[in-house]
Amino acid sequence: MKRYIVFIFVALLAVSLQAAKKEKVQATDSLGRKIKKGWNFGALPSVAFDADLGFQGGALANVYYYGDGSQYPEYIHSIYAEAAYTTKNYGIFRVNYDSKYLIPNHRLTLDATYQPDAMCDFYGYNGYQSVYDQDFHKWKKDQNKMNDPAQYQSRAFYKYKRDLFRFAADIEGTIWKNIKWNAGIGVLGYMIDECDIAMLNGKKEYDPNIPLADQKAMNDQVEGLYEKYEKWGLIDMNEANGGWHPYLRAGLTYDSRDQRTCPTKGIYADAFFTYTAAFNAKYGQQADAGYNHLQFNLNFRHYVPIYRDRVTFAYRVGTQNNIAGKSPFYMNTYLNTLFIQRVMYEGLGGANSLRGIMRNRILANGFAYANVELRTKVVKFDIGRQHFYIGLAPFFDLGLITQPYKLDSQVVKTAYAADKDPLKKELSEYFVLDAEGNIDQSKVYIPHMAAGVGLKVAMNENFVLSVDWAMSLNKQDNAKWANFYIKMGYLF
């Protein structure tokens, strides 16, 4: 699918609601930052267009309460809300609350999100073991002559339909100084199916008398990779349509950061277990098929000050692995976290993990990742009583597989041979094969890498608009040389 996305930022609204009488001269902290007090509100309306998902309209807003300012830039309460929807059934509907003071001496985070996704990415298992061919889903008769129209399948070839509901409640308490305990409970509800081609085509109708590559409408008889994996038995019947997954989470953290949104010094590290149950209304309980599972996550972040709060070297390394049971394929795209701060935590590939690499490109039972950034605050200024800065952050991202799917070449070959689809390609078009014609095991552990630079526009330290440009270092991860992401906050 070739996406064209244009974001028009209508306004960046900043309204400071002070509980106390405004002071003529604001106090400053030890770094010279003017201290905020009372309530503060930031909002960002936007308009977007996507060739497959349609027009989007929505808005996001963040309300902060700083009290008397003694904890600034830490806030007492944060309430975040976002709502966006398109004409073709893609949306984000989310409310998030975060506070260290509602329950004295404990941090509490609540999150409720519904995210319908008409074209969720699916590129197969085990990263480079699965072939990505852009000609399968990208071809334009006049604008992209490098691609081969004979290879074209469908804009939805590497897609499937995924609607996700998430509720999470997480709490943190102090054991001793910077060492904390963590616990959480929540539920993830996945509703999955093949893409609804009729809905995506809209008023355009597929004409069998016109070659597939010469018309905009998609042929609903063309199977996507998700459907092929079902047919070949690589996606089990019990996981093919999603399921509901209540979970329990517990772990430990060490946190010496000077602030949460954009730390300039300190360390954050966590280690935690997540036990997830499994239910599927369509096929009965997934638990009967062994989909109850236990995962372990380990993360380490380090923020090294180079020059005051102006220049910071920041890096993150982490891993997620399955240690008991088995996780359905769609949950292996979810990166577990102790506190929900983003709309979606996808791993690995995409804006929330490996920028510049296609979303969900690295799909495996276990994986590891690293992100490195040099964060700079280029200029600081005030507008009214609001404090802004503009920053740049060049970065490098890396991901690799630690627990691959075990693909039996003979089983795959047998299923492939039994597939009578007249449009199917050679097996080598879906999997990388070795000299003996078997699935190449040497490709599994090759790292996936990308690099880029981010532009940050921040208000009052906590409301941060990020515009990241990134490119993958291997065309198997993304054939495009430029990939833009517009989101809120830093990656970590």
Describe the protein's architecture and organization.
There is one protein chain. The protein is built from three helices and 18 strands. The chain has an 18-stranded antiparallel sheet that branches. Strand 16 (448-459) and strand 17 form a beta hairpin. The radius of gyration is 24 Å and the shape is globular. 4% of the residues lie in helices and 45% in strands. The protein starts with 7 loop residues before the first strand and ends with a strand. With 492 residues, it is mostly beta strands. Mean pLDDT is 87; it is low at 1-25. It has a single domain (69-488), classed as Porin.
How would you concisely characterize the structure shown here?
This protein is mainly beta and 492 residues long. The chain has helices spanning 197-201, 225-231, 409-418; strands spanning 8-9, 13-17, 39-50, 54-65, 77-86, 91-103, 106-121, 159-176, 179-193, 242-255, 266-276, 293-307, 311-325, 366-383, 386-403, 448-459, 463-472, 483-488.
